[in-house]
Amino acid sequence: MKTIYIRLTLASLLASIAPAMAQEGNKSIIEQEQEIQYLQWNKTNNAAGLLLDQPKEHSSLSLGYGQTDGNFRRPQAGKSQTDVDLYTRGNTYLKKAYIQGYFSYNRNDIKAAEYNTTLIDPFRGMPYMLADTNASNWQNQHYAFGFKASSRQLGEHWYLGLAAHYKASSGAKQRDIRTNNKYYQLDVLPAVTFAVNEQHALGANFLYKNYKEEANNSNFTSNVDQGYFALFGLGNSFNYVGAGRTYNYLGDALGGGLQYQYQGAIKALLFANYRVKAEDANISFSNSRPGGSTLEKRWDGGLQLQREGAIFLHGLQADFSDGKTNGIEYINEFVSGTESDGYYTRYQSVRSTYHRQQFAARYEILQKQGDAYNWKAAALLSYDQLHDSYLIPESNMEVSNISYGLEANKLFSLSSIRKSQLAIGLKAQFKKNDKASFVYNGSDANSLTVTDLEERNFQFYKADFQQYELPITYAQQLNNQSNVQLFFKAAGRFTKTDSYTFKDRKSFHFSIGATF
């Protein structure tokens, strides 16, 4: 693992800094992001196809700060959050080969998060965790880096590619029951692309993912035990008193994807992916026993269409996903004795299921201007549905929503001497609930995990809302002879809900940085 970590770090740093030594031109962050948005292969898991989009060399570095506050949230999300982030990316050609990489750091200070004393990210699809009723602050840190690389053309048709991503996180809950968590994740995606001719290309990739999270619970005040719940999904739980448990989460995923691209009067890319992911939640490290497992099977895919004329550029992206997860529970028996291995699993079965479906489409039209745009506008539409069930005794939660929205952006060229640019946008999104029901038939229907945790989750899922966002970007050349562009970005978001349970959620984020 140490060798893999070093190689990934070197590859990511090489891709991030190399463009500074071989820069094609002086591009602002607005122009860079506009180009990246329309690189079709970059939105797939196939790194071997990157050269077919003929990306230009450039890189960027930014430092950001943000805050979020408001009660329109799931209970485990926290009432407010402060973020500090660092991000850098870059790409370059190595003779006729190509590589791009990134590095990011993010620190989250979360205030008044509830019902979580086990997971850094309680929304990552793992129902088997511990929850207490003490609202607490969390301090999390996330490091991520990775790269995508494509070989030169091999023979007349072939390209080989490799993508790898590494993430490491740490998290600490600040109130009893406390926890100290460590998380890591490694994704490796080898790929191949076959260019039939100048217009048609076929691609395929393989995915392997490995991840692990350790959660170590304890009480700072050792003589005062705390009440907590062991969660099993949809509010089903057992009550305990003490200092929590130690959890060891281990997960693996295998999958693959197929891609087809056509380049003619219309540029189109069609892709589909399939993944199987399994994760075990083991209790303790010594005399460990399974506390639950999940098995997820997920399909996703999409279609990208682009048509470019002399004045206008049209873009359409449509995506779908369908994921089904089984929650597996165990009956364990502890066998004492010198020749015993401790706990033995006597029975296991699927006790809960989780189904997620989503379809989203976005159409954009922009009037071209140089390497960016004069103006652009977009329309969005999405439909999402969840259907979660606890099988014995049967409980169900079913929610479906429709979302739609509009975006508009205008770019002002303030000065040609220092290439000063100002981009101002406005985004509006609206969500309407189509169907919602939550029926709990398990034991202890008056438990807080049912009446508070899951009921508030349900109210959040089905709440109608209106969301408005105002993004602003200013970019300017460092000096007349420099290839470095400085930039400032700011965005504010306000979400207002029609729910009687919630009020609103507001956030802002700003960053400063440079492109080179």
Keywords:
single chain; 516 residues; mainly beta; Maltoporin, Chain A; 18-stranded antiparallel β-barrel; three-stranded antiparallel sheet; disordered N terminus
Gist?
By secondary structure, the protein is mainly beta. The protein has helices at 2-17, 29-37, 448-462; strands at 59-70, 80-94, 97-113, 129-132, 136-150, 158-173, 178-195, 200-218, 226-233, 236-242, 246-263, 267-283, 289-308, 312-335, 342-369, 372-390, 395-415, 420-439, 465-477, 485-497, 504-515.
Secondary structure elements and their pairing?
Elements: H1 2-17, H2 29-37, E1 59-70, E2 80-94, E3 97-113, E4 129-132, E5 136-150, E6 158-173, E7 178-195, E8 200-218, E9 226-233, E10 236-242, E11 246-263, E12 267-283, E13 289-308, E14 312-335, E15 342-369, E16 372-390, E17 395-415, E18 420-439, H3 448-462, E19 465-477, E20 485-497, E21 504-515
Antiparallel strand pairs: 1-2, 1-21, 2-3, 3-5, 4-9, 5-6, 6-7, 7-8, 8-11, 9-10, 11-12, 12-13, 13-14, 14-15, 15-16, 16-17, 17-18, 18-19, 19-20, 20-21
